[in-house]
Amino acid sequence: MSIFSDDIRLTSIAAERLTRSSLALDRGRADVEDYFQGINDDWDMNCYRMTEYVEQGDRIVAIGTCSWTHKRTGKVTGTPKIDLCRFKDGQAIEISEFYDTARVFAAAS
Question: What is the number of domains present in the chain?
């Protein structure tokens, strides 16, 4: 969590559907921590591999894959993953994550 600025803005393609409550993820580090806790409550991470990074100025794009097991269903899913990040003064100020939501929703149901 220390890499995030106090006013980090995180957006996720499926944040509201994958956590127990609707989260407004643009309110800072505490909300981002709650978002990750919600994921941790429902999922076990099998792998998270970023294989390529593209940097330009204050932006970094991380490209890779991840795999998760849903704790309730026991179903495993894997998906391509892209994170778009913006930094200021050595801290992340914006992150947007993208992945195959259909695969993730199928594992959760």
Answer: 1
Tokens of 109: 């149901």
> What pTM does this model have?
0.83
Range of the domain at 30: 4-108
Residue-averaged pLDDT of the chain: 88
What is the mean predicted confidence (pLDDT) over 27-33? Answer: 83
Q: Which of 7, 2, 24, 6 is nearest to 15 (CA)?
A: 24
| 35 confidence band (pLDDT: 50, 70, 90) | confident
Q: What is the CATH number of the domain that holds 15?
A: 3.10.450.50
| Distance (Å, whole) CA 71 – CA 24 | 24
